[in-house]
Amino acid sequence: MIGARASQLYRFLTVAKIPRSWAHVLFAQQLAAHRARLLIRAGYYFPALWMLSHTADWQRISTPVHPDLLWPTAWLSFLDVHVAGPVLFWAAIAGASAGAVFSRFSSSRLLVFVCLLEFLSLKFSFGKIHHLMHAWLLVMFVWIFLPDGWQQAGGQTRSVQRRLLFLFGSAQFVAAMTYALSGFGKLGGVVYQLARGEVTSLHPSALARHLAERLQQTGETAPWGPWMIEHGHLFWPLMLAVFYLQVFAVHLAARPQLHRLLGIGLVGFHVMSLLAMAIDFTPAIPLLVLLFVLSPFAPSTDGGQLRAFSSAFEQLPLVPALRGIKRRTRRSSAKR
Amino acid sequence: MKATSVTTLGSGPNWQAIESKFQRIRTPRGLASGFVVLPLDIAPRPNFWSHGVKEYRRLQACVVGGFLVYLALAVLAIPTRRHEVFPFFCWFLFPVTPNVQQQFVLRLREVDGTPLPSTPTYSQAGDWVTEPQSMDAYVAIQALGAAVTANDDSDVSRAWQTLCGNFLPGPSEVELLRVTQDPLQTWRGAPPLSAESIGSFRCRTAAAAPGTQQ
User: Fold this and answer.
1) CA distance to partner chain A, nearest, from residue B114 (Å)
2) Regions of chain A where pLDDT drops below 70
3) Do A72 and B89 touch (CB under 8 A)?
């Protein structure tokens, strides 16, 4: 339906002697809004599904425990936490599920955000605050502000399309910002450790050190961990690649032609950290796929995925500069 | 991409200028154009045919303001006990490469009044504790060690309550050790550089049933 409408619009505009670029932009906006709409609708189901997959946790809350309640659930301390905790737990799951079904209403989207906030707060009140769902929480917050009518297929006005795309782009920025902050943290760590004369991330043993420390913390086993520690020097360039992707995450998120590269790179990073370090950040994978791998802003590859990837690779930050250095070195050696 | 506009008087709209405007939509500008506004330029921006420009600008200001508030709170939360105020987090994950470092290790000495001959560490005590490889338990042990080192009684009490109430088997006695080691050398079989006992604790309550914390 959307395709037929878009081609009608395109014909009308070309017949009306409106320049091709203008029609192209309108068509691109409509198509991108259509894709963003589907992605957001699908995205709203993930938090509810994730919460449902953690229903076993209610036993922990309902038995005599000593939670160190985080502020969003601090009000539970005025009640009997062993009774009110499980009630909140199940209410949050029910609320997020209902909110996902009725995500066209802003009140439902607010409900999903609040339910996820309360659920995570309750779940992480027992020691460590895990960060695997933080990016989802931030994205759910941004999407509360979706305009009325964003879910109507083909019936959106240009203004609604624009606000929908803006909020999709903002969600991409939020997700990229979390990685960029992590990258800048590592950059600061390198400077700090260089000043102290310690081994930094720029040393080939850095990956092996990270893996060894992580696996010894809890005695957990990771399928590839021991092998990667022994061959740490071989895999260290991958760590540098992740470092690079994280530092430039916001820069890449602002370039639609690089969205797929960023998404696939970060998905690979999470898969590797699960296999090598037993760090389960799997909820971030569907978010990265929704926001970047299937980005509505990414240009069509027209079947030439490999060509698109190589062209995107050429546009990565620092790559043209490195090529320039290589060319100049070649020229100067040829002159000699 | 630099826009090149041609001024035409009385000959209809300036299509070249319009085209360059749309070109900018498809290929967002680089970092030099402004760090904060940059990511938001991905979406098509209002133009002279648009409606609702005011709402769009208001939305843009709200989102940019929200980002800045998040960043400010994430940075302000670093000095707090947990180094974050949920859900405001600075995202400094694995910022430094492990070198020779101190860690706190909990050894189980006695469970239900029976002394344990091997005095296993928490992560090796799978026969007595329900979640030996829990990251939550590891963080609680480190928090207890940090509180004991800092001599902060209220923090020691809070950390011990979390550890005893949630992770330790009921009536038990444990010993807290401060271990200095190079993680890579320890992984390869070298003994820790030093290990000293910094306290003993007795737990009188039973821990909760296991959850599925990740």
Assistant:
1) 24
2) 1-26, 64-65, 154-155, 302-303
3) no
φ and ψ of A264, to 5 deg: -65, -40
pTM of structure: 0.82
Q: HSE (CB half, 13 Å, CA atoms) of B67? A: 23
This model of the complex carries an ipTM of 0.81
φ and ψ at B65, to 5 degrees? -60, -40
Q: How is A13-77 classified by DSSP, letter by letter? A: HHHTT--HHHHHHHHHHHHHHHHHHHHHHHHTHHHHHHHHTTGGGHHHHHSS------GGGGGGG
Cβ contact A284:A270 at 8 Å? yes
CA distance B20 to chain A (A): 9
Q: Does B97 contact A250 at a Cβ distance shorter than 8 Å? A: no
Q: Is A9 on the interface with B (CB under 8 A)?
A: no
Chain A residues lying within 8 Å of B45, measured CB to CB? 162
Long-range interactions of A187-192: CB distance < 8 A, separation 24+: A187/A247, A188/B92, A188/B95, A189/B92, A189/B95, A189/B96, A189/B97, A192/B96
Contacts of A18 (CB under 8 A, 6+ apart): none
